[in-house]
Amino acid sequence: MPRYWFRRKKSALCAMPCRVEGWLFTVGMGVLLVLIFVSIDRNQHSVSDTLIAFAPWLLILGGAYVGVLLWKTDWGKK
Questions:
Q1: What is the pLDDT of residues 27-68, one digit of tens each?
Q2: 50/54 Cα distance (integer angstroms)
Q3: Which helix (H) or strand (E) element contains residue 7?
Q4: Total Cβ atoms within 10 A of residue 44
Q5: What 3-state class would DSSP assign to 11?
Q6: φ, ψ dihedrals at 2, nearest 5°
Q7: Is 75 left (phi over 0), alpha (psi -120 to 50) or beta?
Q8: Is 53 exposed, middle or buried (0-12, 13-18, 19+ CB in 10 A)?
Q9: Residue 1's pLDDT is what?
């Protein structure tokens, strides 16, 4: 039986971490996004430049997070 990192919530199409690996992955992804944002913000002169430079990172890492979430979630009937 596979060990899932996330568990589906009963009333929604979302999932919450249920194991240490899921929590580490979630927190690690958040920390990585904050570090990338801060490093981009240091080199930009306006808010729009910062957001434009950060958007591809957010899309790529957000897509990776959703991919792992779909792969490591128990989607069984509740």
A1: 999 999 999 999 998 988 888 889 999 999 999 999 999 999
A2: 6
A3: strand 6-8
A4: 14
A5: coil
A6: -70, 150
A7: alpha
A8: middle
A9: 59
